[in-house]
Amino acid sequence: MSDQHDNPIKAEKRKKLHALKEKGINPYPYSFDRNGDSEQIKKDFAHLQSGEKKEDQVFKLAGRVMTFRAMGKASFFNLQDMKGRLQIYIKTEDLNEADTIAFEHIDLGDIVGVEGYVFRTQKGEISLYAKKLTMLTKTLEPLPEKFHGIQDVEIKYRHRHLDLISDPESRKVFETRSQIIREIRNFLDARGFLEVETPVLQPLYGGAAAKPFSTHHNALDMKLFMKISPELYLKRLIVGGFDKVYEIGKNFRNEGIDRSHNPEFTMLEYYEAYTDYNYQMKQFEDLVCHVVKKTKGTLKFEYQGQQIDFTTPWKRLTVYDGIQEYAQIDPENEISVNDYLKLHGEKKKDYSRMKMGEKQIAIFEIAVEPHIWNPIFVLDHPVEISPLTKIHRTDSRLVERFEPFAAGMEIGNSYSELNDPEEQRNRLKEQEAHRVINDEAHPMDEDFLHAIETGMPPTGGVGIGIERLVMILTDRPSIRDIIFFPTMKKS
């Protein structure tokens, strides 16, 4: 971009960039050898008294200039690295000629390297007395005016780098996200699970009720779909003899965007042979409570101003009982179900074309979910909406499935996995026929059926939405706050 298109601040920064080059100083050197960071220095030298210094130890730090104030021949600026901020004290009379030129051309936002010793100022702040300064990256784009965080959410989400530079709390959220995923891996690895990967591009999508994204592979001249779930591939691995497998990866669903939905999101799915949904309910509690304790230090904390309690055992509620309690209707009475949806359902939805089980779940979403806050297992769903799940062992109208909820959001899903090949084929045939009126119904998948016919042992499977768990554990109201680069309309 030429200077004529710059705003005044950017034009001045560009002018300084050119001046540095003209004076023979490379404003973009290749590397800088660091031996410390802001957090470690503050920790290691917390014992220093006011005015005390440690000239015998030399530290090299690098980071971004966030504040700057000149005081005669001396100057102070805050250097921000990945660990935090450290005050830098500098006098031009201590610098050589090249360092002085670099220092004279510094702007807020520039990335610099400093070398010096640690001391505590008379006002009590741990600082670095810089004897050398190197320009590492001369920036052109001005930083946001408010360093305590960008207020415009459009800028936060579209230009995440600015948000991360200016808001330490935002950086902390994403560090916590990484910690959560790490603790999930630690838990599953300790229990003997094998982490695996399944295809993102699939010839046939499946494993969930969702609309896929599609693309075309030129060399094979075939349509491919982006993964909506790894379920059908993970079950193939169970068939192949891996008794405990899991995947943490991206799923893609061509659906709407709201506070808890993004078209691209991260899921954990794990499958364990010779278990059922009863076993997995306990393991789900163990896993989530492990992550909550490691992240929060307690099972009771506030989310969005309201206390939430993950103490086990969590409450259990069947779909039918929830409808009876909150909608106060008989979930098997078709007239009552239709009347309720006519009165309380979304006007744009055509409930008349839905199966009975789909109507029951619609009522549960309307009448029950708004009342859920503390963690709870919603059990025993209608068979019509669960084509990959075993029939309930005591009630043939239902399947052995649970969905854990917390803070009003579904945070997971689990089945006693269907492994009867003839029943599985019949269920998928029903789903395939239903696709005429519901394009989210499960398609027929002969390759998957071949695996089930080869023989899958009794298996319990679980899925967890990573983003929703992160939202709760970082006290963030929107999924876009905890995804580095959420899907947004083109600007």
Summarize the structure.
The chain is α+β, with helices and mostly antiparallel strands and 491 residues long. The protein contains 14 helices and 19 strands. The chain folds into two domains: 141 residues, OB fold (Dihydrolipoamide Acetyltransferase, E2P) (Beta Barrel); 255 residues, BirA Bifunctional Protein, domain 2.
What does this structure look like?
The chain has 2 domains: about 5-145, Nucleic acid-binding proteins (OB fold (Dihydrolipoamide Acetyltransferase, E2P)); about 170-315 and about 375-480, 2-Layer Sandwich (BirA Bifunctional Protein, domain 2), CATH 3.30.930. Helices cover about 35% and strands about 25% of the residues. The two termini are about 20 Å apart. The strands form 4 sheets. Strands 6, 10, 11, 14, 15, 16, 17, 18 and 19 form a 9-stranded mixed beta sheet that branches. The chain has a 5-stranded mixed barrel with strand order 1-2-3-5-4. A 3-stranded antiparallel beta sheet has the order 7-9-8, with no helix packed on it. β1 (about 55-70) and β2 form a beta hairpin. The longest helix is centred in the middle third of the chain and has 23 residues, at about 170-190. The protein has helices spanning about 10-20, 40-45, 95-105, 155-160, 160-165, 170-190, 230-240, 275-295, 320-325, 335-345, 355-365, 420-435, 445-455, 465-475; strands at about 55-70, 75-80, 85-90, 110-120, 125-135, 195, 200, 215, 220-225, 245-250, 265-275, 300-305, 305-310, 315-320, 375-380, 400-405, 410, 410-415, 460-465. The chain is α+β, with helices and mostly antiparallel strands. It contains 14 helices and 19 strands. It is elongated. α6 packs across α8 and α9 packs across α11 (about 355-365).
